[in-house]
């Protein structure tokens, strides 16, 4: 095996959160390596990524600080200025409006592939060493960890000695297992079905979400097609069997069922892209820190997508690290310093747990057809919508402000 000189940080996983972590550490002057199983596919404007995120203002500010947000917006990012949430059983509506909240926009809808593409190339330009394609096969936290380092063993035979390892390798994180951190999993027995939908009327830069007995259905605004046809990205949480059935039906049948489920203000649904679905679960690591290993993103916390907070929580992990490791000159801070990471771990565990269980509670209340919740939940939405301080507080929490 070949052994490299001491690094400050090794990041494993080059998804949105991992690539942002590598770029953030590099921008702070650390010597960084990024390990990834395969090079990300180049983003293509003509082939939108089915996986999109409702990007919060605090994370847009983070990416602006890292020098990539302008390039993302220039490529394709759809601002949204309003949100409308209602229940299929009736009752009132919960509404968020940018003007009333004193904002130009509430957030942006951005493709996963575009974010990864821009972050990956920015990390290269920032001097991040890349080991790709490669993967972690071992983690040595023996005597060297007591001396301020840990060794990461790669399938290629390379051994990376570093002060800190960042596990950003997803919900099934290999590094989390090697570090001995447990992450209990709760399966919702639902899948999130995603697709792009063309519709008759403009989306009005609005996110629409309707609660149904099987799970919430969201229409997220997306830039019009090149020939001017309005379109949105949908995320439809469904029982597993129902999701499998709807993946198998033809486009006409799917549009019919989607239109009946949405019953929304976008007019006739005219076309649909290919469809995909992914399992939904809650998974929270017992800790996001063990020695000189930390967990970020889905490796630390997987949550229900009904509030669109998954990637936002992951990037807040990075913003928190960036804050505690800020320093004027290189070499003044050990990125694996226990007293700093312990404080960060407490903060992130609290935020992740509150968010995960809050989303789960909402899903349980709204995604069923029991008599009492059905009678009450629409009225509760309407009550919240008529209380401006509550509406503002809910939005500020989601926006990370």
From TrEMBL:
Keywords: FAD, Flavoprotein, Monooxygenase, Oxidoreductase. One of its GO terms (molecular function) is FAD binding. One of its GO terms (biological process) is ubiquinone biosynthetic process. Its cofactor is FAD. Pathway: Cofactor biosynthesis; ubiquinone biosynthesis. It holds the Pfam family FAD_binding_3. The keyword Disulfide bond does not apply. Residues 7-348 form the FAD-binding domain. Belongs to the UbiH/COQ6 family. NCBIfam families: Ubi-OHases. This is 2-octaprenyl-3-methyl-6-methoxy-1,4-benzoquinol hydroxylase. It comes from Lysobacter concretionis Ko07 = DSM 16239. The lineage of its organism: Bacteria, Pseudomonadati, Pseudomonadota, Gammaproteobacteria, Lysobacterales.
